Amino acid sequence: MQNKFYYFLIAMLFVSTFSCKGPQGEPGPQGAKGETGSQGAAGPQGNTGATGVAGPAGPQGNTGATGATGPQGPAGPQGPAGATGAQGQPGNANVTVYEWNTPFSTPVGVGALVTKRFDLTGEKFNRSLLYTFVSVTESNILWYPLPISLSTASFIVGFDTYTSNTSMRIYRTAGSGIPTFYKMKIYVVEANTFINAGRPSAEAPRNVTGTEGKVYTENELRQMSHDDFCKAFGIRP
Asked: What is the pLDDT of residues 133-172, one digit of tens each?
């Protein structure tokens, strides 16, 4: 009997222990952060957005370097022929040069002379103008026309014409010096125009046309230097 009472007390104590709930206690401290989970699958792509407004134009850049020259293009068609120019004035190509390259001098004494003969016919002499130049330096850079007056002597020239040749005479007119003529050239220029000297005229007795078409009088030619004379007729000095 006594044992049953003990069993009853134990049973009641058990019931009271597990059926009575006490007040809730305060939350405990937060636990440590857990590990990051694996990335989820990508979601579907969204729709394309509207195009934005165009921005302002930027400043112009520097000019670039010039490119290489391209290949030459094909020649264009030939143009029409131009009008024929006016006929020019006839030039004078009938210039003959006689040249002496051996030095010579004249004897002392007024009236002394040196004679030089060359193959100019009398017929051609009569329709030509003769211009004589001499070089008085060995370097042949100074040419003087005859007749000539030097510091030591003066000379004139004369001509004798024959059927097949002409003889030129260089006369001493003053001075006792003995200058040397290192070279001599005689230019025979056929005239374009002859005028009767017995008829009054303002023109020179003979006119000659140079290679550029310019007309020279006899007096103009005789006043020219050797270089100017050669230039007028396109002759190499």
From this structure: 999 888 877 888 988 888 888 988 899 988 999 999 999 9
- Report which of 132, 195, 123, 127 is spatially closest to residue 161, judged by C-alpha positions: 123
Peptide bond into 56 cis (omega under 30): no
- Mean pLDDT (the chain, rounded): 79
**What confidence tens digit (pLDDT) does each residue in 19-50 have?**
555 567 777 777 778 787 788 788 788 788 78
Query: pLDDT by residue (tens digit) across 111-133?
Result: 888 999 999 999 999 888 899 99
Per-residue 3-state assignment (H helix, E strand, C coil) for 42-109: CCCCCCCCCCCCCCCCCCCCCCCCCCCCCCCCCCCCCCCCCCCCCCCCCCCCCEEEEEECCCECCCCC
CB 82 within 8 A of CB 200: no
Count of structural domains, the chain: 1
CA torsion sign for 99, 126, 197, 232 is negative
Asked, for residue 120, whether it belongs to a domain, the answer is yes
- Could you tell me if residue 175 is inside a domain? yes
Rounded Cα distance, 118 and 132, in Å: 13
Q: Give the per-residue pLDDT at 166.
A: 93
Q: How far apart are CA 95 and CA 202, in angstroms?
A: 26
Whether this prediction's pTM lies above 0.85 is answered by no
Q: Does a structural domain hold residue 130?
A: yes
